[in-house]
């Protein structure tokens, strides 16, 4: 009786696909839930509706649409954001700052500077005009500049408290460092 019981248990394991290859069921069914359809618009090479895999991000949708056009403001949106079925991915042009009254600036500033701001000579007001730099950060930039001397590269602005890689990537197109004098000041 005991042997029959053990044999029956092993048989069920085989039939269930838990051991051996007998009874194994493999399904290669692509569910409709694994495909997202998103509408990509704005400053991309080929706007339209695209089908992407579940788990795709905004950058994947932009790449599917041929990438950004020159003048696109990819920094205005979070390209790392996950997509959901039916999303609209809109990439604005940098020139849309003027139309929107500075829509993406968190602090409600107007248009970005027409030319990059020299972080070694800029006033507080000029620094505040850079998207991503508010009054507190402008004060910190000036304080750092006064205490340690001129910035030699724009990357050195990350020495300022509150400016990390993310903030630097947001402001780098709007700042510059012109020739530093020989005394480093």
Describe this structure in words.
- The chain has 185 residues and is α/β, with parallel strands linked by helices.
- The chain is elongated, with a radius of gyration of 28 Å.
- It starts with a helix and ends in a 9-residue tail after the last strand.
- About 12% of the residues have low confidence.
Short characterization:
The chain is an alpha/beta fold and 185 residues long.
**What's the total helix number?**
6
Strand order of the largest sheet: 2-1-3
**Mean pLDDT across all amino acids:** 78
Low-confidence stretches: 22-30, 97-110
Largest sheet properties: 3 strands, mixed
- End-to-end gap: 94 Å
Radius of gyration of CA atoms, rounded to a whole number: 28 Å
What's the SSE blueprint?
Blueprint: H1 2-15, E1 35-42, E2 48-53, H2 58-64, E3 88-91, H3 96-100, E4 117-118, H4 124-128, H5 135-148, H6 165-171, E5 175-176
Parallel strand pairs: 1-3, 4-5
Antiparallel strand pairs: 1-2
């Amino acid at each position: 009786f005991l042997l029959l019981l053990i044999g029956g248990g092993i048989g069920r394991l085989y039939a269930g696909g838990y051991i051996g290859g007998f009874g194994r069921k493999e399904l290669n069914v692509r569910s409709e839930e694994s495909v997202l359809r998103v509408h990509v618009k704005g400053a991309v090479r080929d706007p339209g509706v695209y089908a992407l895999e579940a788990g795709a991000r905004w950058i994947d949708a932009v790449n599917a649409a041929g990438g950004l056009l020159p003048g696109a403001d990819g920094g205005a949106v979070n390209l790392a954001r996950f997509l959901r079925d039916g999303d609209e991915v809109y990439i604005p042009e940098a020139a849309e700052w003027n139309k929107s009254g500075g829509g993406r600036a968190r602090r409600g500033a107007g248009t970005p500077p027409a030319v990059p701001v020299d972080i070694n000579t800029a006033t507080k007001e000029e620094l505040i005009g850079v998207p991503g730099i508010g009054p507190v950060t402008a004060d910190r930039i000036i304080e750092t500049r006064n205490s340690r001397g001129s910035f030699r590269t724009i990357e050195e602005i990350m020495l300022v408290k509150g400016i990390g890689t993310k903030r630097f990537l947001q402001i780098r197109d709007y700042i510059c460092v012109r020739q530093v004098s020989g005394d480093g000041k």
